[in-house]
Please model this.
Amino acid sequence: MMRKMTFQISLWTAGLFVLSLGATPAGAELVHEKSVSLEMASQAAMAAVEKCRADGYKVSAAVVDRGGNLKSLLRADGAGPHTTDSSFKKAYTANSMGRPTQDFAELAVKVPAISGLRDMNDKILILGGGLPIKFDGELAGGIGVGGAPGSQFDEACAKEGLKKIGAAVDEPKK
Model:
């Protein structure tokens, strides 16, 4: 009788332990983040490439999701081979830092010590042409354009991508 009772208590304890493995710790919550979809990423990249093409530039445009993963990459006919890397890295940097890459390019000139950001990892590129993708103030990804003859032109094309998907287009700081 005692063995049977000990066995039942052991089973009951084991059952509670197994159930507790699936329990959520007190105060812990799932994280819900906005992130661009494949469709949005494709639309944004195409709008950016089309804007640059209309302006006479052969570029690549990349869009990353909130996690920095590549969602869309388009390289216009005739765009340089380096433009795929630069557009991805600009998109990654804008998403990772949550600000336009031009902000960091300007800051690195004013505050040389900040240039160490360039070495944070091999995906960071401190060069204008990357913009964060935000909806209602929440970061959802990044877009980067590379290949136009100046970062201001890359950024103008990236803004067209943001407009196409209804993302916030931050105005330049004054």
